Amino acid sequence: xxxxxxxxxxxxxxxxxxxxxxxxxxxxxxxxxxxxxxxxxxxxxxxxxxxxxxxxxxxxxxxxxxxxxxxxxxxxxxxxxxxxxxxxxxxxxxxxxxxxxxxxxxxxxxxxxxxxxxxxxxxxxxxxxxxxxxxxxxxxxxxxxxxxxxxxxxxxxxxxxxxxxxxxxxxxxxxxxxxxxxxxxxxxxxxxxxxxxxxxxxxxxxxxxxxxxxxxxxxxxxxxxxxxxxxxxxxxxxxxxxxxxxxxxxxxxxxxxxxxxxxxxxxxxxxxxxxxxxxxxxxxxxxxxxxxxxxxxxxxxxxxxxxxxxxxxxxxxxxxxxxxxxxxxxxxxxxxxxxxxxxxxxxxxxxxxxxxxxxxxxxxxxxxxxxxxxxxxxxxxxxxxxxxxxxxxxxxxxxxxxxxxxxxx
Length: 409
Description:
The protein is of the alpha/beta class. The protein has helices at 5-10, 15-21, 49-56, 71-84, 95-104, 121-133, 146-156, 176-184, 234-247, 253-263, 266-284, 304-311, 329-338, 368-373, 390-407, and strands at 88-92, 112-116, 137-141, 160-164, 189-193, 210-214, 228-232, 290-294, 319-324, 343-344, 354-356, 380-384. The strands form 2 sheets. It has a 7-stranded mixed β-sheet with strand order 1-7-6-5-4-2-3, with helices on both faces.
């Protein structure tokens, strides 16, 4: 029997050396694994140092150091780019890291940014805080008021326009194609956060330059990974990659593998979650303890026509938010405490149904006045609908609503 190559390398060496090197760096296999392997190695070596030099220079498909790129992460980036219809993508350690990188590589101090006024709370806080401190002029507008958007773009001539397809937590749907056309007038880049609607709508097809997802949410889908990704062009990816190398906010291979595994069931999960959310939204519109329901699939939602045009028959998302009638913080806490199946947790897009109180979590960084200005009341609750039986989810929400009503007496 022929000796294994690693045995040949370590033959005659002392045990301390063999313990370190035995079994490592075998010959390349002549098989292909069915699933992408996890490559936990921090560094990679090449027989040809010229190839290693190319890898250090950022050659596509070459890996030398995981902060520069990793084969497992590359597989995830390739998959997401394919789903989003972009040339490429680059993954980061969180959704906010991805957003920060996308913004920082698109503007310079002194540039103007026009952004939606009802962005995710942490995105709003970053634009209103760090980006202003960095020297950018930031103006928040109602992204559904296209006249206001056009006026802000014409007046400020921004370098970047930032919006979400579906806003958090009021689920207002941006007319992305119209915003892109307005941005073209001043050659502004458009960044779209599409976390709430993977597979339902691909903003890049309508001209968005940067499409951001929090991988933590629907794409990962199981509440066991934190990550973010930017789907974009090759030129913008190069800027993002340089930013990631120098700031270090890259996604690890274990997280990339978990996300890649979650991605495989995304179409099935989204189909079920959209159907469940639609059923729950319809039921809550007639519930005596609910004052208002926000769901773009409802005909009376202000964004319904836009949502139908963008999403077609693919569904309206898995998120529902609603105002508990006559509720404040005490009643909302009673509602969340009474839930048995729905998990009161600060996230979304999991297989589990999750409930969140925006005033306490996603929009905590905003003052009560700022929340009120964008329509987030003290009784607003957001449900990320999971894949459980819809009858069980509804029964749980119903009993929790009655517990909240009892707490208010």
